[in-house]
Structures are given as C-alpha cells and as structure tokens.
C-alpha cells in the first residue's frame, strides 16, 4: 500500500484513484457517483412511500422496468422525468444545486 502513504485527505484519495478534476476518468467517476446517489434516494423515497416499483411506475406513466433500472443506477434519466417521479409519483419536492 505504498501508493497511499502520502494520502492525507479524502480528496487526495479520490484524485489518486480517479484522476484530477476535469479528466475523463474523473468525470466518469463523478457521473457514476451522482447516478448511485440518485438511485439510492429514489429507492429510499419509494420505500418510505410504501409503493412498489410497479405502483410508482403507474403513477408517473412509465414501466416498472424503467423504475428498476433507475434504482439500480443503470439508466439515464431526463430532468423532467426525475422531477415527475419525485413530485407526482412520490409527492416530494426536488431541489437542484449547481456547483
């Protein structure tokens, strides 16, 4: 583990493992991380609402397989669809932050 001996912060670890901010490798990591976070938030919100994937899909006019893919971090999602799922399907407001 010599490679990690000079790592002192989480940011340094991420840079060592996934490259500098702006690199294609780092961008892919960031994209996958955001998709994972969104998928976990969706899954948690659906379970808190006591809905099945099929019930949620019916509420927002999509298919269960689409909800499943999103919850497993496997699908791309348009912003309008994400808002519809949370606001119409789960009765939750969604807020966005741009950094």
Automatic annotation (TrEMBL):
Residues 42-85 form the HTH cro/C1-type domain. InterPro entries: Cro/C1-type_HTH (IPR001387), Lambda_DNA-bd_dom_sf (IPR010982), TransReg_Diox_bact_type (IPR050807). It holds the Pfam family HTH_3. GO terms for molecular function: DNA binding; DNA-binding transcription factor activity. It comes from the Bacteria. Keywords: DNA-binding. GO terms for cellular component: cytosol. CDD domains: HTH_XRE. This is Transcriptional regulator.
